[in-house]
Amino acid sequence: MKPIKSNLFNMIASMLIIAVGSAWAIGYVYQKTAAPIAEAKKLKTQTAISEVIGTFDNDPLAEKTAISGEDVELYPAREDGEITSVAVKASSNEGFGGKIELIMGILMDGTVSGYKIIEQNETPGLGTKVTEPKFSGQFVGLNAHDDNFDLKKDGGEIDAVTGATISSRAVVNAMKKAVSAYNKFAGAVRHE
Q1: CA distance 93 to 5
Q2: Boundaries of domain holding 122
Q3: Cross-strand bridge partners of residue 91
Q4: 12, 31, 36, 90: which could form a disulfide with 178 (CB 3.0–4.6 Å)?
Q5: In the chain, % of residues over pLDDT 70
């Protein structure tokens, strides 16, 4: 068998075959994994909602709400038909490793019940400390109506994680988005 001659046409044909084959393989893998990835994200969100708002007798995911002009999602939790708390999904793209996405629980009186980070790419052992109780516990009990959600370095009440100010500030920025959306939501609920 005679080897294929190397010329411009053969090189272009080879690259085209490789490109089409690669594109098909990537598309196939994406199609097969899209549904399981979406289901895993939904489960992670449901778990985080349960952790930050406690008990409820409705499906907060089914009642997902958005506030016009806000890049957040709100999940009202009800007991006996009355909204008792809200889980707010917010994010900040200003983390050291990029996007930090969290779910924050807020009772209807404005009290923060906690937060759970559901997506982050921070430095292991340093920036990831924003997920630990020493940092996250500072937010529990703060009030969305009255308290300052800034770092102490910025005039607020929150101690940054040592050596991870960027990550700490990103979490605070996401929290401030969540608080802003909650306050608009709570104002609308009170006026119903």
Answers
A1: 51
A2: 50-190
A3: 101
A4: 90
A5: 97
59 φ/ψ angles, rounded to the nearest 5 degrees: -110, 95
What CA–CA distance (Å, rounded) separates 186 from 71?
17
Mention every residue, 6+ apart, whose C-beta is less than 8 A from residue 63. 75, 76, 78
Residue 65 lies in a domain: yes
- Pairing between strand 82-95 and 73-79? antiparallel
Residue 1 is assigned to a structural domain of this protein: no
Q: Other CB atoms closer than 10 Å to residue 63's CB: what's the count?
A: 14
Q: How confident is the model at residue 145 (pLDDT cuts 50, 70, 90)?
A: confident
Q: Judge whether 16 lies within some domain.
A: no
Tokens (6 digits) for 133: 């109780």
Q: Specify which residues 151 forms β-bridges with.
A: 158
Q: What are phi and psi of 116, to 5 degrees?
A: -135, 125
Structure confidence by residue, pLDDT tens digits, 76-123: 999 998 999 999 999 999 989 999 999 999 999 999 999 999 999 888
C-alpha 15/C-alpha 7 separation (Å) is 12
Structure tokens at 114: 């906690």
Compute the distance between CA of residue 109 and CA of residue 169 in angstroms, rounded to an integer.
25
Give the chain's length: 192
Residue 164 belongs to a domain = yes
